[in-house]
C-alpha cells in the first residue's frame, strides 16, 4: 500500500556511489534496514559483499558506526560490543551483526549459536544470497539443490538448502523473521519491531544476486518477488514462539495458491543444468515447507 | 603493611587482572589456564569485581569479544593455553592490527598431536609473529606484577601484551605473593584512554578493506596504505622497549620489586659460560649456576623476560664478554633450532661476540628438567666446545637414537 511508504524514515544512511554490484539485492535491503535502525546503532560485519559495499579505506559509503570482524567471528564480535557498551554504562545503542549466508549458515554458525544461547542483546541479520558471492559464487549450505556454482560447476548442488531458521528457533530466542528486499515495507516493519525487542533477534533476508544467480541486474526486484510468489521464500515472523505469515506470503497463504517454482527457476542461469527430477524435488520441498508453516500458523 | 598470601600462579594472574580493574573478561576453559578465569568468575558473581563476564563457546570468540569490547572503550582481560591460543591465532593478528591494548595470560602448554596437557612453550612461541608483546615470567610474584605492568605498556603504545608463564610449574604451584595496594596500583596504572572509541556519536568504519597504496580521504588528506600501517606496528613494538623498561623501573620504585625490564642476569659478572632461557627454566638455571660454581665452573644466567620485542641491545650488552653460551628452551622451530637460540645468535651477528652457542631443547610436553641435568648439560657443552664443537643442538633427556 503506497500510503505506508510515508512512515519510512527519509534519512539515507547509504551514500550514493557505493561499491555493490548493479542490481544488488543486498543494497536494496540494506537501505531499508538502516532506515529502520537509525543512527544510534553499532554494526559489525565479517568479510562479505557488505564489506565491499561499505567502501575501501579511508572512505566509506555508510554513515553508521561499523566494526569489521573476521569471517567466523561476527556474533562474537557483537557480544564483545554489547559487553563493552555495558561496561561503559551505555545501554541505549542497538547492536547489529550482519553476515552473508556463508558467514551465518557455515563459518559463522558456532559464534552465532553461542551468542544466541547466551541471549546476547543484539540483532543478527543474515543476508542470504545462497552462496559465496563475494569470492565469485561458490557453494554454501544455503545454496539450493540444482544450482550451478563454481564449486558445483558440472553436476549442480545435490543437497537441499539448510533450514537455518529452524536452527535459530532452537535457541529459544524472542524474535525471528524472514524478509525480502522486493517487499521493503514488510522488511522495514520487521526491523522496527526487532529493534524494540530485547535479547537475540534473528532476521534472514532472501537477497537476489544478479551475477551469482545469473539474471540481468534490472530483474532483481522481479526475481525477489517470484521467489515469494512461488513460495520458495516465505515471509513470516516468529515472536515468542508464535508463527505468523506476513505481507505477500500471508495473502498467498489465505488464497491457498502459489505459482509453480519453474517460474522462479527458469529466469536464472544458475539453474540451467537442473534436471526435471531436481525441479520436481524442489517443488516438493516447497510444498512440504508450506504444509509445515500452515500447521504452525493454525496451531498458534 | 605488606599483604603476602600463598597462592598459585593462576591466582596471581587473576589478582593482577582484578587489581588492574578490568572491565570485560571473556573466557573459555582449557587446562592449565582454567582456574584464572574461574577465579575471576567467582569475584564477578559475588560482586567483588565489577566487570562484564562473557562465557563464550570457543577461544576464537574469546579473543573476538576482547577485540570488540576494547574497541568500544573497555579494559579487557583473558587467559588461555596451548590449543586455545592456537585457535585464537587469526584473532591475535586482528587484535594487534587493530592496535588494541588487550592483555592475555598464556599459561604455556605443549601442542598436539598427540595430546599433551603438560608444559612447554611451543604455544606462545608459535604466535611470535602476530604483533603481540610477549613477557615470560619466572615466578608467581612476577606474574601478578607483569599483568599490571602489561596494561600500562599496552595502553601507552596501543599493542596487545601476552603474559606467558609455565603451565603447572607455575600455574599450579603455590608460592608466597605480595598483593600490592589497590590505590597504589591505580596511581601506577591510569584509566584506559582508547585511541579510537567506536560509537554512534562518531561513526567510523573500523578495519575495512585497505589498498596496498596510500589514498586520500574525503577531506583530501593522504592516508596510510596497508604496508604503512604494518610499519607503524613494527615501529610501536620496536619502540616499546623503552616503555617496558620504564614501566618496570617505575613499578620497582613504587612496589620494591624489579623483574628486570627486558631481561635479567644472575651471577654474570665473571661468568665463563652464560646460560640463557625464558620462564621457569631460567629460574632453574640459576640453581644450576650455583652448583656449577661450586664445581669450579663460573656460570651465570641471562633470563630473557621479553621475547617480543626481542631485546637486541640488551642481549648484545649482556653477552658481550661471553666465552660460551648455552641456551635452554622449551620450544623447537622444526627444521631449524630453538627460537630463542636462533634469535640470540642473530642479535649477536656482527657485534664481535663470537662465543659458541649450544642449544638444548628441553622439557617438551612436560618432560622433567632437573637442575642436575642442566648442570650436566652445561658441563658436556663446555667439553664439546673445548673439543672444537662451536654449534650444537641437543635434545635434553630425550631418546634420539
Structure description:
The complex is a heterodimer of chains A (300) and B (401). Chain A has an eight-stranded mixed β-sheet, sandwiched between helices. Chain A has helices at 25-37, 49-53, 74-87, 101-106, 109-117, 164-169, 184-196, 210-213, 220-229, 247-255, 262-265, 276-299, and strands spanning 41-45, 65-68, 94-100, 122-128, 175-179, 200-206, 236-239, 242-245. Chain A has 300 residues and is an alpha/beta fold. In chain A, helix 1 runs parallel beside helix 7. The longest helix of chain A is centred in the C-terminal third of the chain and has 24 residues, at 276-299. Chain A has a single domain (10-299), classed as Rossmann fold, CATH 3.40.50. In chain A, strand 1 (41-45), helix 2 (49-53) and strand 2 form a beta-alpha-beta unit. Chain B is an alpha/beta fold. Helix content of chain B is 39%, strand content 19%. Chain B has two domains: 4-188, 3-Layer(aba) Sandwich (Rossmann fold), CATH 3.40.50; 263-395, 3-Layer(aba) Sandwich (Rossmann fold), CATH 3.40.50. Chain B has helices at residues 9-19, 34-45, 59-71, 82-87, 89-97, 122-125, 140-157, 182-188, 226-255, 280-294, 312-318, 339-348, 371-386; strands at residues 4-7, 24-27, 52-55, 76-80, 103-108, 133-136, 161-166, 175-178, 205-206, 215-216, 222-223, 263-266, 273-277, 299-304, 306-308, 324-329, 357-361, 391-395. In chain B, helix 1 (9-19) packs across helix 2, helix 7 packs across helix 9 (226-255) and helix 10 crosses helix 13 (371-386). Chain B is built from 13 helices and 18 strands. In chain B, the strands form four sheets. In chain B, strands 3-2-4-5-7-6-15 form a seven-stranded mixed β-sheet, with helices on both faces. In chain B, strands 12-14-13-16-17-18 form a six-stranded mixed β-sheet, with helices on both faces. A two-stranded antiparallel ribbon of chain B has the order 1-8. Chains A and B meet through strand 1, strand 2, helix 3 and helix 5 of A and strand 3, helix 3, helix 5, strand 9 and strand 10 of B. Strand 2 (65-68) of chain A pairs parallel with strand 9 (205-206) of chain B, so a sheet runs across the interface.
Amino acid at each position: 500500500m503506497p500510503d505506508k511508504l510515508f512512515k519510512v524514515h527519509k534519512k539515507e544512511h547509504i551514500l550514493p556511489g557505493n561499491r555493490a554490484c548493479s542490481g544488488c539485492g543486498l543494497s536494496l535491503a540494506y537501505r531499508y534496514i538502516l532506515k529502520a535502525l537509525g543512527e544510534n546503532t553499532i554494526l559489525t560485519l565479517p568479510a562479505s559483499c557488505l564489506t565491499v559495499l561499505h567502501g575501501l579505506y579511508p572512505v566509506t559509503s555508510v554513515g553508521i558506526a561499523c566494526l569489521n570482524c573476521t569471517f567466523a567471528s561476527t556474533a562474537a564480535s557483537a557480544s564483545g560490543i554489547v559487553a563493552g557498551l555495558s561496561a561503559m554504562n551505555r545501554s541505549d545503542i542497538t547492536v547489529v551483526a550482519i553476515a552473508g549466508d556463508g558467514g551465518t549458515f557455515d563459518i559463522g554458525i558456532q559464534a552465532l549459536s553461542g551468542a544466541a544461547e547466551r541471549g546476547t542483546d543484539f540483532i543478527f541479520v543474515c543476508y542470504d544470497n545462497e552462496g559465496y558471492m563475494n569470492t565469485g559464487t561458490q557453494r554454501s549450505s544455503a545454496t539450493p539443490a540444482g544450482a550451478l556454482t563454481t564449486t558445483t560447476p558440472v553436476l549442480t548442488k545435490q543437497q537441499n538448502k539448510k533450514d537455518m531458521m529452524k536452527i535459530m528457533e532452537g535457541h529459544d530466542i524472542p524474535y525471528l523473521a524472514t524478509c525480502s528486499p522486493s517487499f521493503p515495507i514488510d522488511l522495514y516493519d520487521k526491523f522496527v519491531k526487532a529493534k524494540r525487542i530485547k535479547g537475540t533477534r534473528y532476521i534472514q533476508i532472501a537477497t537476489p544476486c544478479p551475477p551469482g544467480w545469473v539474471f540481468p541486474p534490472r530483474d532483481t526486484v522481479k526475481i525477489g518477488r517470484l521467489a515469494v510468489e512461488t513460495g520458495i521464500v516465505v515471509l513470516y515472523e516468529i515472536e515468542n514462539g508464535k508463527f505468523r505469515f506476513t505481507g505477500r506470503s500471508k495473502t498467498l497463504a489465505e488464497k491457498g495458491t502459489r505459482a509453480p517454482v519453474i517460474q522462479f527457476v527458469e529466469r536464472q542461469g544458475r539453474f540451467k543444468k537442473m534436471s526435471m527430477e531436481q525441479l520436481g524435488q524442489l517443488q516438493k520441498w516447497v510444498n512440504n515447507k508450506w504444509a509445515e508453516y500452515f500447521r504452525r500458523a493454525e496451531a498458534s | 603493611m605488606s599483604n603476602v598470601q600463598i597462592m598459585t600462579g593462576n591466582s596471581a594472574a587473576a589478582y593482577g587482572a582484578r587489581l588492574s580493574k578490568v572491565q570485560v573478561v571473556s573466557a573459555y576453559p582449557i587446562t592449565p589456564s582454567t582456574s584464572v578465569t574461574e577465579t575471576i568468575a567467582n569475584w564477578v558473581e559475588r560482586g567483588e569485581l565489577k566487570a562484564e563476564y562473557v562465557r563464550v563457546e570457543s577461544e576464537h570468540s574469546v579473543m573476538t569479544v576482547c577485540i570488540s569490547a576494547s574497541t568500544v572503550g573497555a579494559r579487557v582481560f583473558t587467559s588461555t593455553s596451548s590449543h586455545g591460543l592456537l585457535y585464537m591465532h587469526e584473532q591475535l593478528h586482528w587484535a594487534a592490527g587493530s592496535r588494541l591494548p588487550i592483555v592475555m595470560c598464556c599459561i604455556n602448554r605443549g601442542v598436539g598431536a598427540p595430546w599433551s596437557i603438560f608444559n612447554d612453550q611451543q604455544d606462545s612461541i608459535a604466535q611470535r609473529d602476530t604483533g603481540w608483546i610477549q613477557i615470560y615470567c619466572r615466578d608467581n610474584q612476577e606474574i601478578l606484577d607483569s599483568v599490571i605492568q602489561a596494561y600500562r605498556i599496552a595502553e601507552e603504545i596501543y599493542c596487545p601484551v601476552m603474559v606467558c608463564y609455565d603451565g603447572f610449574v607455575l600455574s599450579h604451584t603455590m608460592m608466597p605473593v605480595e598483593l600490592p595496594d589497590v590505590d597504589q596500583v591505580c596511581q601506577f596504572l591510569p584509566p584506559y584512554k582508547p585511541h579510537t572509541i567506536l560509537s554512534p556519536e562518531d561513526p567510523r568504519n573500523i578495519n575495512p578493506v585497505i589498498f596496498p597504496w596510500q589514498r586520500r580521504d574525503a577531506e583530501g588528506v593522504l592516508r596510510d596504505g596497508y604496508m604503512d600501517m604494518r610499519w607503524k606496528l613494527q615501529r610501536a613494538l620496536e619502540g616499546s622497549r623503552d616503555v617496558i623498561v620504564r614501566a618496570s623501573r617505575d613499578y620497582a620504585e613504587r612496589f620494591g620489586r624489579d623483574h628486570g625490564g627486558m631481561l635479567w642476569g644472575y651471577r654474570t659478572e665473571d661468568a665463563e659460560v652464560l646460560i640463557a632461557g625464558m620462564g621457569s627454566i631460567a629460574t632453574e638455571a640459576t640453581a644450576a649456576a650455583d652448583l656449577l660454581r661450586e664445581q669450579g665452573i663460573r656460570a651465570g644466567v641471562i633470563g630473557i623476560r621479553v621475547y617480543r620485542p626481542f631485546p637486541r641491545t640488551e642481549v648484545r650488552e649482556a653477552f658481550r664478554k661471553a666465552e660460551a653460551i648455552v641456551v635452554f628452551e622449551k620450544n623447537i622451530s622444526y627444521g631449524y633450532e630453538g627460537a630463542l637460540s636462533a634469535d640470540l645468535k642473530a642479535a649477536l651477528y656482527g657485534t664481535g661476540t663470537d662465543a659458541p652457542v649450544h642449544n638444548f631443547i628441553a622439557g617438551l610436553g612436560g618432560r622433567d628438567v632437573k637442575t642436575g641435568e642442566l648442570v650436566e648439560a652445561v658441563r658436556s657443552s663446555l667439553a664439546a666446545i673445548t673439543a672444537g664443537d662451536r654449534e650444537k643442538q641437543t635434545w635434553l633427556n630425550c631418546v634420539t637414537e
